Structure formats: C-alpha cells, structure tokens
Amino acid sequence: MTIPETVTSIGAMAFKNHPFTTITMPANVSIGADSETMGTNGTGFQAAYMAGSSGTYTFQMVGASSI
C-alpha cells in the first residue's frame, strides 16, 4: 500500500485487521498510537517508521525494515 504525500495523519485503527506486508509512506505522517492502526503487522511498521521516517517498509518475521 502507498500512502500519498498529501496525507498528514492516520487515525487510530484506520487499517485494523488489514494484513499489509509492504507500506510506502511519506515523511511527517502522524500515526494513531494503537498498534493495530497500521494493520495486523502494525507494531513493526510503526517502530520502523518512527525510526526512519519516509520510505518503503516491508514486514518480516522479526519486525519491519526500511528498504
């Protein structure tokens, strides 16, 4: 999934239960605090995004990483 450059925030539970494996996000997007906001793999995506900002994040068994 690709989040457009025009998005500035993603509300809590926006993608709850969606099994995303790859998300591309622009910089400076505010993400709801709940781990399910970014789907079933949300905890890893949120941690990677907060550490690296914009980029493409791919879920891996041990978490998420920036490509």
Query: What's the helix-strand series?
Result: EEEHEE
Oligomer: single chain
- Distinct helical segment count: 1
Q: Which stretches are poorly predicted, pLDDT < 50 over at least 5 residues?
A: none
Please tell me what the overall shape is: globular
Measured on Cα atoms, how large is the radius of gyration?
Answer: 10 Å
First and last CA, distance: 14 Å
Mean pLDDT: 80
Tell me the strand order in the biggest sheet: 2-4-5
**What portion of residues belong to β-strands?**
25-35%
Q: What's the total number of strands?
A: 5
Largest sheet: number of strands, sense, barrel closure: 3 strands, antiparallel
| Helix coverage percent | 10-25%
Structural class, please?
alpha+beta
How many domains? The number is 1
